[in-house]
Description:
The chain is an alpha/beta fold. It is built from 15 helices and 12 strands. It has a 7-stranded parallel sheet, with helices on both faces. The protein has a 5-stranded parallel sheet with strand order 2-1-3-4-5. α7 packs across α9. The longest helix has 21 residues. The chain is elongated, with a radius of gyration of 23 Å. The protein starts with a helix and ends in a 15-residue tail after the last helix.
Amino acid sequence: MFIKNICRKYSTGKSLNVLRLGPTRFAQQAWNDLVSKYNVNIIETNAGNREEFISELKSGKFSNINFITRTFESIKQTGMVDKELLELINKYTQVKAMSHNGAGYDQVDAIECGKLGIQLSNVPNLVDDATADTAVYLLIGAMRNFQISSENMKKGLWKTKKCAGTPIGNDPEEKVLGILGMGGIGRTIRDRLLPFKFSKILYHNRNKLSEELEKGAIYCQNVEELFEKSDVISISVPLNKNTHHIINEKSLNIMKDGVVIINTSRGPVIDEPALKIALKSGKVSAFGGDVWENEPNVDMELIELPNVTCLPHMGTHTVETMKAMEEFVVKNVEKYIETNKVLSIVPELKNIKF
């Protein structure tokens, strides 16, 4: 066994220097195993902001780096991994691949990665269950006004008012559910909600799914149809130029009066000032959000509205999911060592030859 491991360690004929951005909470053993099997060196940054990180880049500190792993939180150290930063990474390092610890990778300019010959991977599928559970919590909580009931109860209002003065909610049964984005997360949300007896489930994607993947959900040719027909709308789209502010004044006006909206994708898919007006007028009867346009600097007026159920971006905030995601990032590094290809290339780069 010892000889086998030694041979495998040098089987690729190269070493790999990995810049690890962001904290590792649960996958340290996976990293240790990787280092023990391959000629991998792990480098950390001391930067506290983008300016300091760029200074490190230009100093030559990362000149031998081949691979970058990053977390959602690492944006505090680097800022957005945009064209400017990627060009600096390309100039001052030897990076040819990057692994982002998350399903959504809007913090990284995938198209620019492709132009510079940098592979970009994400973590698909592993986030589906935890994020779908969060969506179900928000949906039921919003429809039933559970958050304000809890807050009112803690204020002692139950002593003088029925159900602590909470407005009467609604059941999901016989309502029309619309899922905007029926990827892995959207389909898992659908599966979680099947027992709640919605009258029908609609969805909109760029492309219609196979009947096997639809499982009885009805495809809407355009997003306006989904908005017009849904009593409850759950959002699971990636953030990009086409989905930014897809929920806005115009789209809200198309929706049914009293619609319920749930967002577990990315905050900027919603124009929050427009949503706030709709919540105050009753056009939107309730909103459940895990993600926010300017998080963590959330609009306090919005989240304090009585018909808002809110969470601080907790969709994947479980030990099991976070551990699996971190370990998948390590698997991407291992796959790159073995094949010069990452394990899960993002869709924008699938047709590019690296």
